[in-house]
User: Fold these one by one.
Assistant:
Number 1:
Amino acid sequence: MKQNKAYAILPVMLTILLSATLSCSRENKITPSSGSGVTGGSETGAIKGFFLLNEGNMGSNKATLDYFDYETGVYTRNIYAERNPDVALELGDVGNDLAIYGSKLYAVINCSNLVEVMDASTARHISDIQVPNCRYLAFDGNYAYVSSYAGPVDINPEYRRGIVVKIDTVSLTIADTCTVGYQPEEMVVVNGRLYVANSGGYMAPDYDSTVSVIDLATFEVIREIDVAPNLHQMKIGGDGMIYVSSRGDYYGLQSSTFIIDPSTDEVVEELPLLQNSDMAVKGDSIYVISHSWSNITLDYKTGYAIFDTRDRVTVNRNFITDGTESEITTPYCIAVNPENGDIFLTDAKDHVTPGMIHCYGPDGVRKWSAVTGDIPAHIAFTHKRLESL
Amino acid sequence: MAICMAAISGVTTAMAQDSTLTADTDSIYSLDEVMIVATRTSDETVPVQMLSGEKLRSLGTHSIADAIRYFSGVQIKDYGGIGGLKTINVRSLGSQHVGVFYDGVELGNAQNGIVDLGRFSLDNMESVSLYNGQKSAVLQSAKDYASANAVYLRTKRPSFATGKNNNWNFGLKGGSFGTINPSVLWEHRISDGISMSASTEFLYTTGRYKFTYAKQNGYDTTGIRQNGDVRMTRAEVALFGDIDDGYWKAKAYFYDSERGYPGAVVRGEFIHQDRQWDDNFFVQGSVRKDFTGYYSLLVNAKYAYDYLHYLSDPRMDVTTMFVDNHYRQQEAYISAANLFKPFSWWDISLAADFQWNNLDADLRDFVYPQRYAVYTAGATAFRFGGFRLSASLLYIYVHDMLRAGSGKIDDRHNLSPSVIASWQPFQDIDLNFRAFYKKTYRMPTFNELYYTFTGVSWLEPEETVQYDAGATWNIIRPTGWFRGLDLQGDFYFNQINNKIVAMPTSNQFRWTMMNLGYVEILGADVAAQAYFRIGPVDISPRVSYTWQRARDLTDPTSPWYGGQVPYIPVHSCSATLGAAFRDWSFNYSFIYTGARYESVANIPENYSPPWYTHDISLTKSFIFSGWELQATVLVNNLLNQQYEVVQCYPMPGTNFMIKVNFIL
């Protein structure tokens, strides 16, 4: 009697297989965006909102783009894929920089080796420009400048300079390249010169310590300024000085900030107590966050400082006034709305799950928070509202 | 999707109800309707699944990883293609908690604790077994107690027909991905008590295959997987000897390979250039002897040398960083296990193992670690009628020494107990209930502790705790069309404490290791194998099904608290159907892996859709006087499904292989 039951195994098995096969084969949809209201909406000035580029972990093709709209107060995650269903494999692997110039939105996708160019009012793909191992953006006149680790390979491939690629913003083609220091990072343009912070990150512990100065008229390096090892971020302060951060060496040498006077191309001051993972300028203030790892203490040091460029002093060591900094695990990126002084601070958490963005008022009190993509890292304010789909 | 989940979970529910009621004899008889479980290993008191002989070869096209996929409770992480890394994760405890034993001695990798199953061919393999917990043999080395789960690979032991002193098997395999794989096996009888086996094979594959990524109403892009080429040579010599009341065996193994890393397929970057060269060499030996009926001794010894060279060259691809690293590992191991049998119903064993590991690497600021480890295990087993109880206690002592740098590592001590019980209520029915509890510790690997980017980090060992309860039921019928049925089902609850998790430091390129994680796994594994003979045709269907809820409970404040652990499907199943008719044999196999998430954040962005594959193979033997020719055709992924096991690593579509063996 049991034997008859055993014989029933075959049809049962076939039914399961067949239903599994037929019903599971057709689900591969573009992941839609997801939005949520984080404020009731507010009056807007010239700045209508901002885009946020999430880096995504290396090798995971998970760079995503978010958008916040001031008027509706809606924060929308992952807008790129649904607006560009024809772009294969979406935005790409590791979003490393984001900027709006003219009517276009530029995203540097580091491990996809390209600069994605979108229409800033629709976030629709216009073009992509191949730049191997591209890192950061700067703009001047009709050109975009992209720093890249991928310079010429010399006899010793371990020591390899980086380049800056000059891109025509109308034709979106590469116009020229210029060899700079080792593993160049962020750049600024002052008086027709491009300043490039070189890290030498591939050569640890023999970091580069220079800023390359390129004359944009000839597109040639005219000077190398010796600053400190492992340079990273670069901004122009309200005083016209160049502020550049050093990551330190993660051992005895801590992260710090340096001031370069572009009229003399000399380091005029070192701010050893101003540890710096990211900074944002508003007027005479520089907002500096730090989250520095030490291989000696095996721990992080975290700070939220405001540096006053008029007196060159750190006027505030913790601009968060409501105690909510305890909820932030891994402060990663800061941006300040130049109009209303809103401070945007991202938390990258453990890098493998979605992060958070927090909006603080100029008084340091949290206004709202939203969940982002993985590793929220780069913010670009926009003067045009993103058109809805 | 909803339909398929319903179909499968319907079976689960039915099974779950039956299994929870198995103490009640009435419900036992309903088990066969939903057909649970597997193989003829009823001597074991822990869950075990085994594939051997022809069945093993018909399931495994390229490597043992292809065959192990059919076990319940198992996830194979497969980076695709013949050369892609293939690791096994059993009951969601992680691949580093699976001990892999080759002819009785564990394959080690002190550097990363991972064994690539894709490197072990089925060519000279006799059987592959998976034990949850540990093998319930009492006479075994202390390391047999040390892993949460264990895979035993057993190579062929020579056997000779009367009057024959030599067996030869010449094989040639070839097919998709530009694969060619010749092999030779020679077995020789040296004397009545001593025999030898020598086998060698060579494999070359271009590793190229087409893959497609497509979205509904969206992009549809196709590429060719590149830089997945492998060139491999394996050679093995083994000696087997009989002694009075015992045996000895000795083996030398050599593996040499060069391979490309096909890498992640991401936007703009389909082709990679980095390469790896490996040399693995080991010698190992075992002696077992029974001294009277009361005492037995088993001695194992091994020496292993592993060399790895990794090269990433910006002259080949301008986007990459230059990396040119050489790693050299050595391992020496000796074990003595003693079994005392004071009464026929009572066994006591004591085993002591010593292991030394050494890692050299040309990395900057490398600390050159060495590890001395002592494993001591005491175990005892009782048998009273149908009731069996065994318990073991393993003590691990680990001392790490750094030959450079100022880091000082404290010694580690850990005690891990296990208790296994089984009960056969009726003497004439092969129905067994079983349960086990086991705790294990996994020592942090050299990579986790001493990887130079983050310096030396202090880590506690990862701890796993397993609770299992289940039943097996085996029926054998010597005559008729129904020849037998093996059912096996288990429920389990596992915990991982102090899980070692990579955490980012200041930037993406630098990670550090921390004992952060806590994971709970609730699961059910079932497997069933039936045997039929209908006229001249032997038919053997086998199914297995796994349900797992593996939840990350690390941080209660995290919005992703309780999320399903990455890459663990809630539902997975496999089915195979073997049929043999005279000198023909046919095999069909099916694998289904349910939806998974690529991150503990179980959100649409991290959703990985279910995948399934259908494979078939057909073998025909031509038997002549004194020699035999076997020809096999295998077709895998019949429906050309495009899928990923690991995100950004596309798997091959339909592919085929032809195999010819000339047996003398």
Number 2:
Amino acid sequence: MKIVLVTPEIPYNTGAIGRTCVALDLELILIKPYGFSLDEKAVRRAGQDYWKHVHLSEYDNWESFLLDRKPQQESLYFFEEHGAQSVYTPEYQQDAYLVFGCESAGLPAEVLDGMDDRVFHLPMRNPLVRSLNLANVATAVIYQAMRTQLGG
Amino acid sequence: MSQFVQIAAFQPDLAPNLGSLVRLGVCFNAPVHVIEPCGFPFSLKLLKTRALDYAEHAEVHHHDSWEAFEAKKPGRLVLLTTKGATDLWDFKFQHGDCLMVGRESAGVPDQVHDAVDGRVKIAMPGGGRSLNVAISAGIAVAEAHRQLRG
């Protein structure tokens, strides 16, 4: 599996997700532009001494990612609060791309276009509040997606 | 809504992590227990600020010590730990379980490790010593929710 962050804004979240990618030996793919520089201390602080071990790839935009990787539609999993299906539902493909949008606005419409049946949400228990921060959601989702591969 | 699980932070070193745990608690209707001493001056007001716009929904219980917390024991204590533990996926969560994370720097002392009712570890096949405490708690809470969502 591979983790894709589309235009992440907050260095802490990218660092923390990177640390989890190292723990699971997953590639982290970042789609530009970012709201920070990867050289910033905040990225390394959140990623701790793991950040240097992150298997990192970068793309200038979503189109160049699609052109280069040519992912099958069935291997793309998008995560949004309004996703029609729960993250607990699918059987995740081995070569899945788990795609997360930016903290303030989620995934752009052009990325989600035609992908209605590929959008998933992490169910929570309090309907009154908006969401968890990106690092918390993404890491919880990644572990759920990896559950069967990890023996669960 | 029926009670789901609870979260406990054992002597947290870093205020931002405790803020993340409180936000996690709000999103999952899970009360958060804070066990002193913290590595920073505990302030409910400051903590709620860190939980962003969820302040009014946060349920935080402040305990002066491990002994004070243990005496009140809010539910079955389930420690997230890297040592001698059941895999997250094999652990059967129950409603009311209290998921506890240790200090960022040192985990929990042996006395606490021995006193809990369950010990759960999160797989890290890629290596590394540990995950961030708030990240770990989020992974465990999502798995508990999967098991208990009915």
